[in-house]
Specification:
Layout: E1 5-11, H1 17-26, E2 29-35, H2 37-44, H3 47-50, E3 54-57, H4 63-76, E4 82-85, H5 102-127, E5 134-138, H6 145-149, H7 161-180, E6 187-191, H8 208-217
Parallel strand pairs: 1-2, 1-4, 2-3, 4-5, 5-6
Length: 221
């Protein structure tokens, strides 16, 4: 098992974790999916999937859970070649400033942003055990400030304050970490599973074009 590449995919609500897991399995990875709440329940009901990958329950807001996950990966696999930070939630669709609940915004940031920072911090030692470790942060065009300024952009009128700002924060964090990791062997990148020109993507479906773009990140230096 140690000869195979080990990948961890996080899942908290966008239903893409299973699809990323299948792509990785097709490309020779041993896959762990760390999921919480409804995502965990949904994945637990897929018996065929459970035969393919290792499903682990996690609370992404709990540092203790992350360290338990780290120990499980270390004891079972001894390393981590690839981390896919896919955990995300969304709330407050269409809310204007007077409707915003700061606690709801904070809840989204806890999963979409802060938990990703902590996950990388905790799992970095396992990544450094590998020859070419990779981190891919799953982002969204709704967190692209330039696109959200463009009236021709398909999601220009979307008002998802918590989600969009959390993804914008993640985009900048990814850029900063990419520069930090330049002197190390860790490769870091972001990936938007919604093609920018696709304005009808309202379901968690990965097209062949998106799949091929994702696969290219697994080998790009």
């Amino acid at each position: 098992m140690k000869n195979k590449k080990i990948a961890l995919v996080t899942e908290a609500g966008n239903d893409l974790g299973k699809q990323f897991a299948h792509i990785l399995l097709e490309n020779g990875y041993e896959v762990i999916v760390a999921a919480c709440s409804d995502s965990l329940e949904n994945l637990s009901q897929d018996k065929d999937a459970l035969l393919s990958y290792d499903l682990v329950e996690i609370d992404f807001t709990s540092e203790q859970h992350l360290y338990i996950l780290k120990e499980k990966i270390n004891n079972t696999y001894g390393k981590l070649d690839l981390l896919i930070n896919n955990a995300e939630i969304v709330n407050g669709f269409g809310h204007k400033i007077d409707q915003l609940d700061v606690d709801d915004v904070r809840k989204v940031f806890e999963i979409n942003f802060f938990s990703i920072i902590k996950t990388i911090q905790v799992l970095k030692p396992l990544l450094l055990k590998c020859a070419s470790p990779r981190i891919i942060n799953i982002t969204s065009s709704l967190g692209d400030i330039d696109k959200m300024k463009d009236e021709n952009f398909c999601y220009y009128d979307y008002c998802l304050t918590a989600y969009s700002t959390s993804k914008a924060a993640l985009n900048l964090f990814t850029q900063l970490q990419t520069k930090e990791f330049e002197s190390s062997k860790i490769s870091m990148s972001s990936f938007d599973p919604i093609l920018m020109e696709n304005c009808t993507h309202n379901s968690a479906t990965i097209s062949d074009a998106i799949k091929n773009e994702f696969i290219s990140l697994l080998t790009t230096e």
